[in-house]
Specification:
Length: 451
């Protein structure tokens, strides 16, 4: 098939650009994995160093032209780090839930201790009393267990009941049943009522996850609301309020998850924009202004805008590389390539290259280099010629096209035929006058229509 052809070209520069895009996304993923992991205190410096060591290995693959290997392994690494960060979030969330349970247990323990000590009319040291009241009010203390243990030690001290009324003595004795045989740990596990309402356990989980995603500032209001509800008597009203809190948290969590995934994509796009030198101060300010409370539609529109800018930049860069590669290859085959031909091709949509060894004939390359699909064909430069030579010229061009494919393959490019007509199937096209006068003819080129 040696007549007009529709071909597709993929340049080495295009493949490298794809690989570099993968690496930029990996870098952004590593940054998010590292920052988030350290923020939630679930990542060590050694683990970060190991990941950065793996990252260097991908640079080596790029230098070795191991493009296929890189394009497979980098997305796998991104998927691994994303899943690993989710796992660390779950671990941190569970720790936060357990800490909230411990905090709630401490609050209830302090309340019970105060009740028991007052029932026995035991004098509580002022500082200890203030610390127990603080815990009972629901405020955290790093030395909570120490405070509670000190309070418990007062309970195990023998007491005199002579100054107590009959009712006080009865209450004190009831509270002391079995106490003398228990240590603090046993008492804490058996004498303090644990929260039984499963709604509260669910809310704890939701608050922990939201805090992992957005930080403690976004959960403070929910913690305060929950604290108020817990002080209410157990009733259907309390359950209704807890259900309302669950729904509010669920909505906030859904928004937080969507925001996180959208911002992850946006930050990856920013890295590519910077690589193409397309970022402006205004654009960066708009991206920086994207906060959790911002409209998701606005963030999505900004993401789409960034994608469009990147796609346009890639197309321009790849089209330029394709034109350069084709023209350089033709020059190596002896065709006359002038300095302005690349610009003419970009402007007019086609270019004709002549060869001194084939007077009166040339090669026309047309089509949109931005999508990688081109039309190539041998052409006559004059209408008044010996048309019996036309088939010979097409046959010669067929051989030279194969040589062009080989030259491009040697430098890592790929020039593949998608459609071709046989020699003499259509008359040799005559290209006379300026390229501008024939631009409309190129746009209506039959082969372009078929594709």
């Amino acid at each position: 098939m040696s007549g007009p052809k529709v071909v597709r070209i993929v340049t080495r520069e295009e493949i490298i650009s794809i690989c570099e895009g993968h690496l930029r996304r990996l870098d952004q993923t590593i940054a998010m994995w590292s920052n988030d992991g350290k923020r939630i205190k679930e990542l060590t410096d050694e683990e970060i160093a190991t990941t950065l060591h793996r990252r260097k290995a991908f640079d080596i693959l790029l230098k070795q032209d191991a493009f296929m290997d890189l394009q497979k392994k980098v997305p796998d690494e991104i998927a691994f780090l994303t899943a690993d960060l989710d796992r660390r979030h779950r671990i941190a969330s569970e720790k936060a839930v357990q800490e909230r349970k411990r905090h709630r247990h401490g609050r209830d323990s302090a309340s019970t201790l105060i009740q028991m000590l007052e029932a026995r009319d035991i004098a509580i040291p002022t500082k200890l009393y203030e610390e127990l009241r603080t815990l009972a009010a629901g405020k955290a203390a790093p030395n909570m267990d120490t405070i509670l243990a000190r309070g418990f030690s007062l309970l195990t001290t023998p007491f005199s009941s002579k100054d107590l009324s009959e009712a006080q003595r009865t209450a004190a004795e009831a509270l002391m049943v079995g106490l003398e045989k228990q240590d603090f740990t046993t008492w804490k596990a058996t004498h303090v009522p644990l929260t039984q309402n499963p709604r509260i356990a669910r809310i704890d989980q939701q608050i922990a996850e939201l805090e992992m995603l957005l930080g403690s500032d976004r959960t403070a209001n929910y913690i305060e609301r929950l604290s108020k509800v817990e002080k209410m008597e157990v009733s259907s009203k309390q359950n209704l309020i807890l259900d309302s809190l669950i729904l509010d948290l669920a909505a906030d969590l859904e928004s937080a998850r969507t925001y996180r995934s959208t911002m992850t994509e946006l930050r990856a796009l920013v890295a590519e924009l910077q690589a193409h030198d397309l970022t402006t101060t205004t654009l960066l300010e708009r991206i920086e202004a994207c906060k959790p409370l911002m409209s998701l539609q606005a963030i999505t529109e900004l993401t789409d805008e960034c994608r469009t800018l990147i796609a346009q930049a890639r197309q321009r860069k790849e089209a330029e590389a394709r034109r350069q590669v084709i023209l350089q290859g033709l020059a190596q085959l002896g065709y006359e390539i002038s300095e302005g031909m690349e610009t003419a091709w970009a402007t007019d949509g086609r270019v004709v290259a002549k060869k001194a060894a084939l007077p009166g004939y040339g090669v026309e390359i047309g089509g949109n280099a931005q999508n990688g699909r081109l039309q190539v064909r041998a052409v006559a430069l004059e209408a008044d010629r010996d048309i019996s030579r036309d088939k010979d010229v097409e046959t010669i061009w067929c051989g030279e096209f194969s040589k062009l494919q080989g030259l491009l393959a040697d430098r890592g490019d790929n020039l593949a035929i998608e459609r071709a007509l046989g020699v003499g199937v259509v008359p040799l096209k005559v290209v006379a006058g300026t390229l501008q006068s024939n631009l409309q003819e190129i746009k209506n080129f039959d082969l372009a229509k078929k594709t």
